[in-house]
Design goal:
Number of helices: 5
Structural class: alpha+beta
Largest sheet: 10 strands, antiparallel
Helix content: 25-40%
């Protein structure tokens, strides 16, 4: 199997662009308490760093799978030789044993080939997302002005997907390329459709199932909110310490060209990103609100209009904004909510990880 050489991208000039972006937006939306004046800046830089981290991790995974595929090929050739010799010697028992082992080895090889292909798709769409983010950083750095309210990026999609901009414009992203989202934009999937987006400055990845709709409802200094209008979603939100580790690790500027040139800018560059570590992520389906700091969970609007929250890691605060009831749902538990209240958490007996069954998804 031919393997492509993996090379690092050229990111010349990004340090200058980031500096311009920071300087140009110091007075954006000043005095508007319901908005985050550094929101677009934090989102773009945070999502850029997170996407680059995903690319590096995926490239490491590709190297591992490459070695596994090579080992599979060697084992398969060896077993084919054993089977051939057993057949020539009329040793039916040895031939049968070799055939069974060969079948298992080929199945493992096929699985590794599929994993390779899925990782290649993940790497390709992550590179496309990173390049799109860099382009927006470039544009925002050259023309500082009012906050464009960029708060999300559709990094992958398939099937029937429609994006409704807050301006009323309808986008049919048939190309499957990255699409930026602003506060007030909505994504709708049809039967069999799916969409994946980054938000919360790269801290949150959201996967939307078929026949679902989600809207970027609002963004403040303290929290970012999404409204699940219908259907179901899954989200993995980095814990605050995970973001801190990413930003405090050796040479945060290593993702940029000439990282040494960022040494004096590092703290100024990362200040709005560090604030994201304290930011809440909220999912709303009125009158229910789920508040998340760092966890993995799914949220679904049921046919009766109620909602079901399932938590796979960490915990989520679920509250009813009408009667004020609040329930903490921990790892391995689920809870349902309706207009009149919230159930007590119940232990999950089984997990339907539908988001892992979507095409091109690598766990």
């Amino acid at each position: 199997m031919m393997m492509k050489r993996i090379t690092k991208p050229n990111l010349a000039g990004l340090a200058v662009l980031a500096c311009l972006l920071l300087a140009g937006s110091a007075s954006i939306l000043r005095g508007q308490a319901d908005q985050d004046p550094d929101g677009a800046k934090a989102f773009l830089l945070g999502a850029y760093l997170k996407t680059q981290t995903v690319i590096e991790r995926t490239e490491a995974d590709l190297e591992k799978v490459k070695r596994d595929i090579q080992a599979d090929d060697g084992l398969i050739r060896k077993l084919e030789n054993i089977r051939s010799r057993a057949r020539q010697a009329n040793d039916a028992r040895a031939e049968k044993a070799a055939e069974e082992t060969l079948r298992t080895a080929r199945a493992a090889g096929t699985k590794n080939e599929e994993t390779w292909a899925a990782l290649e798709r993940l790497r390709a769409r992550s590179i496309a997302s990173r390049d799109a983010l860099r382009g927006r950083i470039d544009a925002l750095g050259r023309t500082p002005g009012p906050d464009p309210q960029l708060r999300g990026l559709v990094s992958d999609l398939s099937g029937s997907v429609r994006i409704a901009k807050k301006s009323g414009e309808i986008i049919d992203p048939a190309s499957g390329g990255p699409v930026f989202l602003e506060t007030g934009d909505a994504i709708t999937t049809g039967p069999g459709g799916r969409a994946e987006l980054q938000t919360l400055g790269g801290r949150a990845v959201v996967r939307l199932g078929g026949e679902s709709e989600i809207r970027l409802a609002g963004d403040t200094v303290d929290k970012q909110a999404m409204e699940l209008v219908k259907g179901r979603m899954y989200s993995a939100v980095d814990k605050p310490e995970e973001l801190e580790a990413r930003l405090s690790g050796p040479k945060p500027g290593r993702h940029f060209e000439e990282p040494g040139s960022l040494d004096k800018l590092t703290e100024k560059l990362l200040r709005p990103l560090r604030r994201l570590a304290r930011k809440w992520f909220e999912v709303i389906h009125s009158p229910t609100v789920g508040s998340i700091r760092g966890t993995r969970f799914s949220f679904e609007v049921k046919s009766d209009g109620g909602t079901e929250l399932a938590v796979y890691e960490g915990e989520v605060e679920l509250r009813n904004i009408v009667n004020g009831k609040t329930v903490i749902v921990g790892q391995g538990f689920k809870a349902t909510a309706a207009q009149d209240g919230i159930s007590e958490p119940l232990k999950m007996e089984t997990i339907d990880a539908w988001w892992e069954k979507q095409p091109g998804t690598v766990r």
